[in-house]
Each structure stands twice: as C-alpha cells, then as structure tokens.
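step 3/5: co-fold with S-adenosylmethionine
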Amino acid sequence: MTLSEDGSYTAYSKEYEEHYHSTRDGALKESLVKHVEPAFKIKQNQDEINILDICFGLGFNTLATLYYYKQNSLTSKLNIYSPELDETLVASLQNFTYPKEFEEFKSIIDSICKDGIYEDENFYIEVFLGDAREYVKKFENKFDIVYQDAFSPSSNPMLWTKEYFSDIKRSIKEEGVLTTYSIALATRLALYENGFNIYLNCGENFRDATVASPSSLVAFKEVDMPHKISCNPNARPLRD
Ligand SMILES: C[S@@+](CC[C@H](N)C(=O)[O-])C[C@H]1O[C@@H](n2cnc3c(N)ncnc32)[C@H](O)[C@@H]1O
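step 4/5: write tokens
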C-alpha cells in the first residue's frame, strides 16, 4: 500500500508498473473530483442512474459514489456495473485500509469480495470478473455515467482505443456523461471520432481531467477539438 497526498492509501501494480491512483492528487480525492463530482453535476435528478465503472480495481470510484450519494442525501436507485480482470485483487479488498469515509460501507465491500455482488433498496453493485472489452459489448443505450479509469493509455492501451470507445459509445445513453483523468489528445480523439463532445474538468487543487458526452453540456468548458486537430495534424487515436 502507498500513502497518497490526501491521506488515503492506494496500491502499486507491479504488472502495469503504475499506482492505482494519482499519488499526487490522492486516491479518494481523485475519485471524487475527477469522476464522481463532475458526473453527478450532470446526473442527479433521475429515479435510476446506471453507472459503468471501468475498472473496479480497489473500488474507490464505486465507494466514492456511495459516499457522495449519502453526503448529498440522494434518493435515486444506483446500479453500478464494474468489470475487473484481477480476481485475487477483488478477493483481497476485505483487508484493504480504506479511508474513514468508506467505513460505513464495510459490509458492502465484504459482500463484493465474497460474492461479486451487492444489493439493497438503493444500490445494485455488480463486479464482473473478466475482460472489460467483452463486458461492455453486452450493453446498449444503458449507462448514464461511465467512469473511464483504466491504467494509463501507455500501459493498458486496449482500454483506450477508438474501437473500445466505439463500444462505450454504444453502451452510453445520448445524455450520458463519461469522466476520465486522461487529457491526452489521443484519448480525446478516440472519443471525439466516436461522436463524443469533449470538455475540460479543471479545478484549483487537482490536475486537469476530461469529461465527454454525446450531448452538449453547459456545465463544462468545451475543448475546441477542430482547433487541436489543426494544431496537431499527425495526432491519431490509439487503435486495436
Ligand atoms: C487504475 S486501476 C482502477 C482503479 C479503480 N477505478 C479504483 O478506483 O480503485 C485499473 C484496473 O483495471 C484492471 N484491468 C486491466 N485490464 C483490464 C481488462 N481488460 N478488463 C478488466 N479489468 C482490467 C486492472 O486489474 C486494475 O485493477
């Protein structure tokens, strides 16, 4: 475990040679400011909210969503779908040192570790042990929110290609919102070439991130993609 800047612990993957979260931004803070808060800025007032959490990892994005939900007294039914390749990691999370903000979710974590699923009257959480590339193909016009939080494009390129985002586009609703920490032009192009509008998610105490949606969003500053492309004529999205 590695202590990150906001006092929460993250982990390091030897296989991908990367931390699961930005140690500079902090694990909990990164989940909140780069994923949960920008997504819920757009999506709140719905009876039911379907979320695709790519990928489950230590579960911070899912747990930070529950935390945000409780803090803001939301009432929507939340359905969270999250693929994860690493079965051993998921099974080990019962023993992970989570921030105190997640203490009330201990029984939820235990249930996910044991059965890969949790359900009560407000939440349905499903962790699919397998390949995200196959998993996302199952869904069409389903998700209100997609947290795109794979390891970086350089270490896990298969979860950042134009073809992958084509499947994500199929799975997200027209009014849906995708959040990601990546501001790489190749990532933004892969989204843009699949019909997403691209927005900047910025704030004072964290590094810039990206929000994308098939629809127009007024809550975020739009990235001028035609201008970026004309300044970088050789830029290309990653491909399968
Ligand atoms: C950056 S971590 C995710 C962090 C997570 N969102 C969190 O908040 O803790 C990336 C995760 O993707 C998983 N992964 C990598 N390739 C995958 C694939 N093809 N399908 C499913 N999971 C994958 C890794 O095992 C790792 O747990």
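step 5/5: annotate
Residues 20, 31, 55, 57-61, 83-86, 89, 131-133, 149-151, 156, 159 surround S-adenosylmethionine (CB under 6 Å).
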